[in-house]
Structures are given as structure tokens and as C-alpha cells.
Amino acid sequence: MDRSILAFLVAGLTVPVLVAAWFSSGGAPKFSDYVLIFGVSTIISFGGILFLGVPAYSFLRARNWTAFWIAPLVGFIVATVAWYVFNLLFGLAFSRGQWSYVLSRLIDPFPLDGVLWPVGPIGAFVGILVWLIARPDRSTTGGNTGNTDKYPKY
After folding, report:
1. Is 86 exposed, middle or buried (0-12, 13-18, 19+ CB in 10 A)?
2. Cβ atoms within 10 A of the Cβ of 107, count?
3. pLDDT for 116-141, tens place per residue?
4. Over the stretch 60-73, which tens digit does the pLDDT of each residue have?
5. So what's the pLDDT on residue 154?
6. Could you check whether the bond before residue 118 is cis, i.e. omega within 30 degrees of 0?
7. Residue 23 and residue 1 in contact, taking contact as beta carbons nearer than 8 Å
8. CA distance 63 to 39
9. Distance CA 101, CA 98 (A)
10. Phi, psi of 148 (to 5 degrees)
11. Structure confidence at residue 132 (pLDDT)
């Protein structure tokens, strides 16, 4: 299995575990709450990975921007965008056609609080985890032969 695929699968499953742990730090929720939290955060996590994380990874990898410090920054940004998209979709689902409610969800301080803690730091941690597993800074040619050309020169 490709290391980047494994990295994104592990990252997608890490997010719900960390979110459930964060929710349980305030007290012991019921089992059904854990199931709901785990299910929703898994959907958001893999949606964010599929629509934001993989394109960001591909973009950075194509430009050879693979330094370690970029991983937590991009993870924080991807998690923040996913959080705001979730809040927008949540607002649309429960607005009953009232756009003022949808807009209030985007400027509400709660989403900003969620970005600063725990969403942003979880995203940064996941970015680091993806970097450590996928190791985009290493060559994918399968060995250090010294020849970086696709075809040998004659």
C-alpha cells in the first residue's frame, strides 16, 4: 500500500478518536453520544481529507514544498476550512430558508472557538501524522541511484 494512502487512512481515523477524547474530557457522555460524535466526526474527517487534504498534499508535493513545518500549518488550515464548511452545512440544514441564520453560524464566536481549540490543533497534529507516515520529503524512485532522469542518457 502506498504510504500516502496509509497516512490519510490513519489520519481520518485519528480525528474521531481525538474528538471523542476531547468531548469526554468535560464529563462522561452516554455511549450513544460517543457513537454520534464518532460517526459525525468520521464523516467530516474523511470529507475534509478527500476534498481538502488530498488536493493540498498533491499541490504541495508537485511543487516540492515538503518541509516538516508546512505539515502542521496545512493541517490547521484544512481543519479550519472543514470546520467552517461543516458549520455552513449545519446552518443550511437547520435554517428553514432563513439565510440570516446561516450567516450567523459563520460569524458566531463558537466556530472561532472551535478553530482555536480543539479543531485547529487536531488538524495540526493530523498534518504532522500524515507527514511522518507519508514522508513526502523522501524520493519515490525506490532508491538513491544518483540518476534523477526518467530515461538514461546515451
Report:
1. buried
2. 8
3. 788 889 999 999 999 999 998 886 55
4. 999 999 999 999 99
5. 47
6. yes
7. no
8. 35
9. 6
10. -100, 0
11. 94
